[in-house]
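Final report, closing paragraph on structural work. Over the funding period we assembled a curated collection of sequence-structure pairs, and we close with a single example.
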Amino acid sequence: MGERNTGCIIIIFINLFPFIGNILFNWKADNLLFVYWIQNILLIIFYSGLVAFAAQEPVLNDRNHTPRAVPIPFISNRSGWVQLVKWLPPINYWNIQYITWPLLFGLLFWLISGTKIIDMSHPNPLTEGKDTPFREHITVLTTADSFEAILIAFLIFGMLFILICREFFGKEQYKSFSAPSLAEIPIRIGLYWFITAFFIQFMLILTHPIISAFDQTAYTGLRVTIILLVMKILSEWSLIKIQRDNKPNKIVNWFSLFWQGPEDPDNGN
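Its predicted structure, as stored:
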């Protein structure tokens, strides 16, 4: 079995693993979506942290989507590198300024869209309308959370963490990335969830006539979960595929939101 197929199978397994909660804890759709929601914030934070290790010189004039630099006092204006531990590559002080913007941007879209996606799994959503009290958004999360859900979210993130670290550090992919190009990943993860929320809403409306002959209550959460799961697997695999070979096809391009991947320093001139 080829390495590419193995990576795809691992990602599918990671995303299907939370369904163990349906067997052990009698979870419903909102519990599963909460697990993916927590895993997503961990992924955004993790990818934002990887920006610090980028070793490639940026080609800013060749990028259509360059994240903003947010200077950090006493750090961003320093030059040179620092190595925190021997088993990790050194950190470039200049890279630190590209962490804040994608982190905040990704978390903002994650917070808005994640709550909406979880709520859409309920037959009667709590957050409909513009004047929805903020406490209703909190209620959406508190009805879906549990210690077991948070534990499994960290567990599947740990699996993905190992896969990404093997690619990024083990195969020295950090040498192919500049800080601005790598900072586009957490932004796209958050934005992808935001777009997915609208897509799920559209699909619920589109499929409503088809399942109206059945029990609408029983199928709402299932539809939301399946749509999110498919979109999530495609997104995660697309990002890893581009990091590996930087030769995306159209489908990979779409599900990575047209991320260009590692930079080619020869295109800077």
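The chain has nine helices and two strands. Residues 31 and 146 are 8 Å apart (CA to CA). We thank the funder for supporting this effort.
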